[in-house]
Write a structure and sequence with these properties.
- There is one protein chain.
- The chain has helices at 18-28, 64-80, 124-139, 164-174, 180-192, 238-241, 245-255, 259-279, 286-303; strands at 37-39, 47-52, 56-61, 91-95, 105-109, 114-115, 200-202, 211-214, 217-221, 228-230.
- By secondary structure, it is an alpha+beta fold.
- The strands form three sheets. A five-stranded antiparallel sheet has the order 1-2-3-5-4, sandwiched between helices. The chain has a three-stranded antiparallel sheet with strand order 6-8-9, covered by helices on one side.
- Helix 4 packs antiparallel against helix 5 and helix 8 packs antiparallel against helix 9 (286-303).
- The longest helix has 21 residues, at 259-279.
- The protein is globular and about 60 Å long.
C-alpha cells in the first residue's frame, strides 16, 4: 500500500543528502565517523535511507509527520523482534536534530535481501504461507500499551471510514474508466463489515517493497513506521496487491481470516488502488498498469468469492 497519507495537505518534505548524513554521524556518533555514507537507491518516501558502512543503515524522516514514528520504532521494535520468526529492523541508535536537520532519526542494522515482486517469488504459495505465519506471530505479541492508530501511522488499524471521502472522490473521477458500480459495492461491503475482535499488533504497510527475499523466499520484513495496535485487516491488503490467487487462498487459511476481516482487508486494498487508478487515468506507464492489474485482481476475487 505504501504509507503516503493521502489525508489532508501533503507533508512538507525536505531534502537529505549524503553530506548532511555525514555531518550528523560525525557530530553524534564519532565511533562511526570512519564509515562510508552512501544513499540507498530508491530508499523510500517517508524516510531517506543511507548505507553507513557495510552493515548499518541511517534512516532520516523526510517530513515532520513521518518523524512521529521514530520514537515508536525505538521503543517497540526491540520488543517485537525476538517474538517474530523473521528478522525486522532493530534500531542501534537514535539520532537527534542537528547539522541543519530538524528531526530525530535512527541507525539500524542492515538486513540483506531484495524487495519482493511477483516474478521473484520462487514459490508463491510458500511465500504467502510464510508471510501469513509472520503476521500471525505479530498478532500474537502482547499488545498491551502498544500505540493506537493515529497521525503517527496515518490511522492504519482504525476504521476504513477514515478514507471514505478519498475513496468516493476517486470513484467519481473513475466513472467511465472502470466498473465504478462494482467498486462502490465492494467499498460499501468493506465499510459495513463488522469488527468484533480484540486489538492486536499490525505492521500497517505490508507491501512488496517492505518484504525482502533471499533466493526467492521471504527473508525479512522492514519499515515498521506505520505499525500499531488495532484492527489487523490493513495487513491483509497484500493478498490482492502481490499474491497469486493460490497464494491468496493459502494466506487466508494460514492466517485464519474471517469473512468480515477479509472484507475490510479487501477495502484497504481497494481504496489505495482507486486512488492510484484515478491519479493515472489516461497513462500507460508502469504505475498505471500495476494499479489496473490490482483493481482487476480485486474485482475478480470479489466476484468469484465462495
Amino acid at each position: 500500500m505504501g504509507s503516503t497519507p493521502d489525508l489532508g495537505p501533503a507533508p512538507r518534505r525536505i531534502t537529505v543528502d549524503a553530506e548532511l548524513v555525514r555531518r550528523l554521524v560525525d557530530e553524534q556518533f564519532p565511533q562511526w565517523a570512519a564509515l562510508a555514507v552512501r544513499p540507498v537507491p530508491a530508499g523510500g518516501w517517508d524516510n531517506f535511507t543511507f548505507h553507513l558502512g557495510d552493515t548499518m543503515l541511517a534512516r532520516l524522516p523526510s517530513a515532520a509527520e513521518y518523524a512521529l514514528a521514530v520514537d515508536k520504532e525505538q521503543r517497540w521494535l526491540p520488543a517485537l523482534a525476538p517474538r517474530l520468526p523473521l528478522p525486522i529492523p532493530v534500531p542501534l541508535a537514535r539520532g537527534n536534530p542537528g547539522a541543519d536537520y530538524p528531526f530525530p532519526w535512527s541507525i539500524h542494522r542492515r538486513l540483506d535481501g531484495e524487495p519482493a515482486s511477483r516474478d521473484r517469488l520462487s514459490d508463491p504459495v510458500r511465500f504467502a504461507t510464510d508471510l501469513a505465519g509472520f503476521l500471525a506471530a505479530l498478532q500474537n505479541v502482547d499488545a498491551r500499551g502498544g500505540p493506537q492508530p493515529g497521525k503517527h501511522n496515518w490511522f492504519r488499524g482504525a476504521s476504513l471510514r477514515t478514507y471514505d471521502d478519498l475513496a468516493r472522490r476517486a470513484l467519481t473521477a473513475l466513472d467511465g474508466h472502470v466498473d465504478a458500480g462494482l467498486a462502490r459495492e465492494i467499498w460499501t461491503t468493506a465499510l459495513d463489515a463488522r469488527r468484533d475482535g480484540r486489538d492486536v499488533w499490525f505492521h500497517g504497510d505490508v507491501a512488496a517493497g517492505n518484504l525482502l527475499l533471499d533466493a526467492g523466499e521471504l527473508a525479512a520484513v522492514i519499515d515498521f513506521g506505520t505499525c500499531g495496535v488495532g484492527d489487523p485487516a490493513c495487513d491483509t491488503a497484500i493478498a490482492w496487491t502481490l499474491l497469486t490467487a493460490d497464494g491468496r487462498r493459502a494466506f487466508r487459511e494460514r492466517l485464519a481470516v474471517d469473512e468480515q476481516t477479509w472484507a475490510r482487508g479487501r477495502g484497504w486494498a481497494l481504496w489505495k488502488t482507486l486512488a492510484a487508478c484515478a491519479r493515472t487515468v489516461g497513462r500507460t506507464d508502469e504505475e498505471a498498469v500495476e494499479a489496473r492489474r490490482v483493481l482487476d485482481e480485486i474485482f475478480v476475487e470479489y466476484s468469484t468469492r465462495r
